[in-house]
Amino acid sequence: MITAGQAAELTGAVITGSAETVIHRLAKIEDAGSGDLSFLERDIYAKYHETTGASVLFVKPGFTKSRPEITYLEVKNPYLSFVAVLNRFFAPEFKLTGISPSAYIDPTAKIGANCAIGQNVVIEANCVIGDNTKIFHNTVISRDTKIGNNALIFQNVSIREECIIGNNVILQPGVVIGGDGFGFVPDSKGVYNKVWQKGNVIIEDDVEIGANTCIDRAAMGSTIVRKGVKMDNMVQIAHGAEIGENSVLSALSGVAGSSILGKNCIVAAQVGIADHLRVTDGAIILAQSGVSRSIDKPGMYFGYPAKEHRLAQRLEVHTRNLPEYADRIKALEKKIAELEEKLGSK
């Protein structure tokens, strides 16, 4: 429980109404009731302003504050301010303390201060676990793996041998780090021979990886996820790929082997990036696009193969109009034939 004044102090908001208004929970504007804090940022949600039951509302400067029973908090970015309050005062608690008797920790492993380890967790030889890290039930951490401080590793995560994971990393349930990359070589008879993957995975600080995402180990060297990267559920990062700082990847996207994604890129859902490519810093690849060539210029890309967005839109318009174009061409051909027939008869 906090007050509107505390929320304003944290976010630098200008208050209209009572700073003593109590906030018990956070809610969407359409669902909010008495004691709730919400926010209004996009115009499409403005219709809920007259009916919301929220007691406190983040709004943009200049918003018409027509309901005296609401305490308004004016900020430049209402959603970002809402998130700041969430993270400071209402963040979820993941209750796990101590080390479960059912966990197996190899005697050579080093466990930091104030760690919590759940039921049936396995930590193999020579692993190093940093301070304040929580490892939930049924997770397996293979030999010679290093995990930094303040990591949050949820249930049923698998981390293979010799991987390195930084500080403040969150691994959602079912994540697999360091599984073998998809490496096979056909012989003269067409039989595929396995290429054992001898590298590892390096995940830098402040990374979050969504449920059931897989990051494969490199054949040689490392698959690298740079600082601040965020991945959605069921993302596939292949062997030897590198994901640049503060890039985000949405669900069902994939980066093939040895490709490099730059810094601050946005990869939307169901995007595929082919192998051995480079995508420059700041590229935005829209949903269901297929990247078959390197992208060397920042901007927005769409389609298969992925093209600059404006070009892709123009091509899409022409594609939709192909039946009309065909009819017009037939009509023109008919007129030309008629003209030729007239000219030939003279």
Write up this protein.
The structure is a single chain. It is built from 4 helices and 39 strands. It folds into 3 domains: 88 residues, MurE/MurF, N-terminal domain (Udp-n-acetylmuramoylalanyl-d-glutamate--2,6- Diaminopimelate Ligase, Chain: A, domain 1); 149 residues, Hexapeptide repeat proteins (UDP N-Acetylglucosamine Acyltransferase, domain 1), CATH 2.160.10.10; 37 residues. The chain has an 11-stranded mixed β-sheet, covered by helices on one side. The chain starts with a strand and ends with a helix. The chain is 16% helix and 29% strand. The model has no long low-confidence stretch (mean pLDDT 97). The protein has 346 residues and is α/β, with parallel strands linked by helices.
Mean pLDDT: 97
Oligomer: single chain
CATH topology of the largest domain: UDP N-Acetylglucosamine Acyltransferase, domain 1
CATH class of the largest domain: Mainly Beta
What is the CATH superfamily of the largest domain? Hexapeptide repeat proteins
Distance between the termini: 95 Å
Largest sheet: 11 strands, mixed
Poorly predicted ranges: none
Give me the CATH architecture of the largest domain, please: 3 Solenoid
* Spatial arrangement of strands, main beta sheet: 10-13-16-19-24-27-30-33-36-38-39
What is the overall number of helices?
4
Number of domains: 3
- Helical content stands at 10-25%
